[in-house]
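Handout, section B. The chain below has 152 residues.
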Amino acid sequence: MVVVDLSATDLAAPEREARAQLRRQISALEAQLSDAQIAAFPDAPDGAPRTPSAGPRMLGLGELEAARDALVERLAGVRAQAAERGRRQEAGRALLERMLLEPGRHRFVRVASRELGEGGCGVWQVRPRLGLIGMLMGWWQVKLSSGCPLAG
């Protein structure tokens, strides 16, 4: 009769490989999430919730899978926010283009530079060219404000 000794090292090899694979996936997802947040929101701080821990410890397979799944959800959320922000900025740029082509049809419409994805405090606005006379005559122009107001 042959006795086969199944030691703990033989049983731990598949688990060790699974852990290594999950750590690689988590590392790749963290890098993708970081890149997506920086690209989409360069001026926004990271709003990721931080969970307090009791100190260093080895995560089980279930905890590693949960961490991976949470990263996948966060990455999908950041990508969705970036796509929505891009759609809004594209709509703002299209509106500005229409304003520049036909200012008379967009009387008193305002588009902030931030809505276009640009920095600063500038605002594009359709205004009458010579005040009341220009309004009565239909002379409209698109003007860009000079920028941020002075702190007072």
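Note. Strands lie at 110-112, 123-128, 140-144. Compare this with the example in section A.
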